[in-house]
Amino acid sequence: MVSLGPENVRIGAHAADKADAIRQAGAILVDGGYIQPGYVDSMMRRETVTATYLGNGIAIPHGLPQDRELIQHTGLSVLQLPYGVEWNPGEVVYLVVGIAARSDEHIGVLQKLTDVLEDEATVMRLARTQDVNEIAAALDPARSAEAPAAPAPSPPILGAGQRVDVEVTGGTGLHARPASVFVSLAKQFNSDIRVSHAGKTANGKSMVSMLRLGVERGGIISITADGPDAAKALQTLREAVETGLGEEDEAAHAAPEPAVQVGRPESFPPEAAPDEPGLIRGVAAAPGIAIAPLHQLRKQADEVLDQHAVDAAAEHSDFDHAVDRAGAELEELHRTVGRRAGEMEARIFAAHREFLEDPDLVDAVHHRIDGGESAAFAWRETIDERANDLAALSDPLLAGRANDLRDVGARVMRLLVRRNEAEATTLPDHEIILVAEDLTPSDTASLDPDLVKGILTALGGPNSHTAILARSLDIPAVVGAGHQVLELASGVTAVLDGSRGTVLPDPDAERLERARQAQHGAGQRRAVVLEAAYRPAITVDGHRVEIAANIGAVPEAERAVNAGGEAVGLLRTEFLFQDRTDPPSEEEQYEAYRAMAESLGGLPLIVRTLDAGGDKPLPYISMAHEDNPFLGQRGIRLSFSMPDLFRSQLRAILRAASHGEIKIMFPMITSVHEFRRGRALVEEVRREVDGPNVDVGIMVEVPSSAVMADLLAREVDFFSIGTNDLTQYTLAMDRGHPALAREADGLHPAVLRMVDQTVRAAHGEGKWVGVCGNLAADPAAAPILIGLDVDELSVGVPNIPALKAQIREMAYEDAKELARRALACSAASEVRALTGEAA
């Protein structure tokens, strides 16, 4: 087995940038005789193919598979950077682990790194230690191999005992998101499901109960089931736990979160960095430097509640109504955060919904009401009791979920006492650094990054959902700074460094200038990337790909242009129709479409007509219950069934087309007949409003449209492939199903063959093809899609600069070869292995 010795570890290093860090890590391998110098260049090229940032301050640069002949024998190097280096925008690395492996001999070190990655204290210690032997001991896979093997879980018992033991291997244990997946699955069965761990037993259908088990990664849980479908329940839940409850999928496919320095105040910056007078130390939670006046968040004090109630029936009714209202608010918040920050972050509020629907929690409140307590008092006491239980858990990640439960508690309490949400918090209309004892995820999700330039809290940790949201919203944050920060005066200018976890209130002129210079330096790379984002995405051998934006709100059009977007490849018009009691008027829609077209300054705006129904119901449309909503009345089918609503939208779009280059796109087209019917209606309405001629295209998101692409290409003006739906329909896997999310991978060869077939059919008729699903933003997928000759990639606004930079550093001919090999694979895992992600 490969070993890491202290001679291959360099401590106390400094790197000007990522390239410098990689070259230093590679030089150690060259000096040790492990690689030829040319392999360092291969390590640099690898960065354009796939991410080597693992998270939590660790990166693993390594070369491309085709350059393995430059490796003389397998070796490892470690470069310690106490002050860090920006790896990618928002990612700071402190340990650079260079890998040169001729085969799979390096797997041990990757496993070892995974263990270290989950242990924040170890990462902090290794980032500042001055002992090379300590780093070598922590990362040496040979020493890992000598450790005694962990006991294997008991074999499953699916017979009379109706019990199965299984190890929790995904993510960081049963924290909120994986626990919500488990609970969601358990609720599908009629059997009573119990989960035991370390002498505690939980209701498998109760989110709070599951979290109170405190199961960390590697923990063994016993799942028991009693009821008519017990065996099936155990089988399903065992498989779900073994495959990571969705957490493994997140790590593999989601864009990496920005790196943060984590730990206690005394840990960072390293001792070598002198303190500024007056400097306050906290925990780094979201990177970046903010300079703005402080603003203390003063929330409305908790109401004095009447403990007793006269009418229990009225209290039960009030409580049920408040829970229903809170659930609707969380659904809206889930959609909003999904648009602003991404689906992974939005899942936080799906977990909140599980709290709200927790049967143990709800039953406990109803029981207390039956005992004579008021609904508000019973709810507050029940939430406090369970939140305190969670906060007492030894694992900080699980203990941090107490804040999420209190967030849900506050939401329902506000409704029970009939307090307006806007009354609870009021922020100024100028730039601030927000100071609070703590923030809930709901608080954070509602912040405006244009005004809230930084977050400072007395409590909290770097892995809280609040910190995750702050990172996704690009708001620098320092948490856990102590109650002293609550004494800082509002209006005083401060410097907050979210990368180092420090705050400097009221700096003098010299310190303020130094901070501004540091802010400029920290943002210089981002500025360079953003500036380069205006350059076209042209490969090194001259092939151009258009990069567009997916948006779902009026302000996002301008942000798309500022990020270097060359068009809006997908405008989700649902934002105008959802979260209201009646449909938008034609005038309201026209104003929104016109504003976006004008913001784009002549760049194309592709407007997808309403894609609602089925899984996305509208409250003002009466629809029958559907057992399979993804296969029901949705998309263009719903529009055809409501011609007045459809015509109103088309009129608004075609009127707005006079103010910019607008194209129309129909969702869920399954046949030539459907497209012809839609296009005829567009032409009829165009004549009514005397609008300009516009291109009309379709979403390719069902297999029938891909299979019929040759016939459709003769009729449409363009195709845009929605890989999210195309994947679930092609693989017959609900993309929202918690147990199947890991398998519903858009890089499955069957999906890629659908893309290939669509592109070839379109190009045969001189039509262009875009991809607007999540696959377009996957760094592993971009070279394959380009190799399949996709003309346009449409992604979320934050992804645009990095995607364009990636394309400018790849070769079109290499991409075509990669795509050819991907089409010949038999599974998505093989395709991902081709891109180097399996290394």
UniProtKB/TrEMBL annotation:
InterPro entries: HPr-like, HPr-like_sf, PEP-util_enz_mobile_dom, PEP-utilizing_PTS_enzyme, PEP_util_AS, PEP_util_C, PEP_util_CS, Phosphohistidine_dom_sf. Residues 244-263 are annotated as: Disordered. Gene3D superfamilies: HPr-like, Mannitol-specific EII, Chain A, Phosphoenolpyruvate-binding domains, Phosphohistidine domain, PtsI, HPr-binding domain. Residues 161-248 form the HPr domain. Its cofactor is Mg(2+). Transmembrane segments: none annotated. Its EC number is 2.7.3.9. It holds the Pfam family PEP-utilizers. Residues 2-142 form the PTS EIIA type-2 domain. Its main location: cytoplasm. It is an enzyme of class 2 (transferase). It catalyses: L-histidyl-[protein] + phosphoenolpyruvate = N(pros)-phospho-L-histidyl-[protein] + pyruvate. One of its GO terms (molecular function) is phosphoenolpyruvate-protein phosphotransferase activity. Keywords: Cytoplasm, Kinase, Magnesium, Metal-binding, Phosphoprotein, Phosphotransferase system, Sugar transport, Transferase, Transport. It is found in: Cytoplasm. The phosphoenolpyruvate-dependent sugar phosphotransferase system (sugar PTS), a major carbohydrate active transport system, catalyzes the phosphorylation of incoming sugar substrates concomitantly with their translocation across the cell membrane. The enzyme II FruAB PTS system is involved in fructose transport. Belongs to the PEP-utilizing enzyme family. This is Multiphosphoryl transfer protein. It comes from Skermanella cutis.
